[in-house]
Amino acid sequence: MSDTESFEDLLKQFDQTRQGEPAIGDKVTGTLIAIGEEHAFVDLGVKSEGRLDLASLKDAEGQFKYVLGDVIESHVTGRDEESGMLLLGSQHGHKAHGIDEVERAYRQGLPVQGQVSAAVKGGVEVQIAGVRAFCPASQFDIRFIDDLSEFIGQRFDFQITKFEGGRRPNLVVSRRALLEEAQRIKAEETRAQLTQGAVLTGVVTSLKDYGAFVDIGGLEGMVHISELAFGHVKHPKDVLHVGQTVEVGVLRIEPPSDAGKREKIALSIRALSRDPWLDAVEAFPTGVRVAGKVVRLQPFGAFIELAPGIDGLVHISELGAERRINHPSEILTEGDLVEATVLGIDLERRRISLSLDEHRQIDSAVTPESLSAAHAAESEKTLGSFGELLKESLSKGR
Fold first, then answer.
1. CA 253 – CA 260 distance, rounded (Å)
2. CA 215 from chain center: how many Å?
3. What is the C-alpha to C-alpha distance for residues 319 and 297, in angstroms, rounded to an integer?
4. Which residues is 64 bridged to in the sheet?
5. What are the Cα distances from residue 16, in Å, to 9, 24, 108?
6. Euclidean distance between CA atoms 322 and 128, whole angstroms
7. d(CA 42, CA 35)
8. Considering Cα of 50, then 53, then 56, then 58, what sign does the dihedral take?
9. d(Cα 113, Cα 109) in Å, to the nearest integer?
10. N or C: more exposed end of the chain, with fewer CB within 10 A?
11. Looking at residue 148, what DSSP letter applies?
């Protein structure tokens, strides 16, 4: 057998081993075999090893979640043309070194690295291997970005969607295509742990009058304004901001109504907090003078916020002492700071009766001891875990 024939045989054998390798987008399972300074390496049981960013192995605190020998699940997102390694997770394309490599990446559907060099009409200009490319504004990110100039000088991975060679090559690229694919992969992983009652970490993506939208890992859920906190929230922007990391509980998961649509996920931040009413008796015993802020005025009285999530009611008959009051607005304005006397607490109905008359005589039938007994009975039903808090929230139809 000649040297040429031997080489051809080896090449054929190599090609045959490559045929069994996973393709871009495939889900793979392998063993963690090495952790370097920038990347980790996974034995996938095929000719090529897989390469992961170290960030994929760390938790939110930056600590490693895996050790050598652990089995890892991921997705193939590309191939490094220089080493032949399969790129896993958030890893993407190689750094091209000329128009020939750029064209090869286009033909093979591989992502390439590029640097944003300018913000132009309708998008951004991107330099890829010394070649100017155009990325439309609608293809730069999953969400609309008003000012693309903030990304000038930054490097990203792009998918080449149009390639016209010649003396002046014409390239059109998309970053959105890669982000959507990464989001799809992440969404699959999130769905695997998405159950009613699960506690997840997410990032606030947008704020509306009626609530906040939170990305919980490739999927977006909504926290209704009533589920943001126990206290009264006028607008979500008063307690949250876009980009903020939050911990949320899953209240409900509604299947997609039509093909192509995603499930609706109802989330809660409030359900992860301790109910302030559980401590109301000790905090506001009958007869004590308390300070609070007027939050709402109604024809029948004024609501006073005593603590986040706890409002007391001053009935109109308790507002004017010896005066006759037709409406609370005659003596109070929303936002006023006032002092009041606690007349009594109804734990079951979650009501605290107040009086602005500091000389008001307290009903002797209502004593701190009787209220403590009621509180003791209520404490037996205390919701100490998230699951129980969630059960209470669900029972109220939230």
1. 16
2. 3
3. 12
4. 58
5. 11, 18, 19
6. 82
7. 9
8. positive
9. 13
10. N
11. G
Q: Are 147 and 188 in contact (CB under 8 A)?
A: no
Match 């591989």 to its residue by tokens. Answer: 110
What tokens appear for 284 in the block? 């506001």
φ, ψ of residue 391 to 5 degrees: the values are -60, -40
The CA angle 230-235-240, to the nearest 5 degrees, is 75
- Cα gap 52→35, rounded to integer Å: 9
Q: Scanning the structure block, which residue is given the tokens 């191939």?
A: 79
Is pTM beyond 0.90 here? Answer: no
Kindly state the helix (H) or strand (E) to which residue 65 belongs, with its residue range: none
88: its two tokens: 């896993």
Q: Give the pLDDT confidence of 101-144 residue by residue, as tens digits.
A: 788 888 888 888 888 888 888 899 988 877 888 999 999 998 88
Contact 281, 372 (CB under 8 A): yes
Concatenated DSSP letters of 279-307: GHHHHS-TT-EEEEEEEEEETTEEEEEEE
Q: How many CA atoms lie within 13 A of 214 on its CB side?
A: 29
Kindly give the confidence (pLDDT) of every residue in the chain, 398 residues in length, as a single tens digit, with 9 standing for 90 and above: 444 444 444 434 434 444 567 776 677 888 888 887 777 888 888 777 788 877 777 776 677 888 888 888 887 777 765 666 777 875 555 455 567 778 888 888 888 888 888 888 889 998 887 788 899 999 999 888 888 988 988 888 898 998 887 777 888 999 998 888 888 888 888 888 888 888 888 899 999 999 999 998 888 899 999 888 887 788 999 889 998 999 898 999 888 777 667 788 999 988 887 777 777 777 788 888 888 889 889 999 889 888 888 888 988 888 866 678 888 888 888 888 988 888 888 877 888 889 887 655 554 444 434 433 433 443 343 334 444 545 455 454 44
Sheet strands (E) in 4-107: 27-35, 39-43, 50-53, 71-79, 86-88
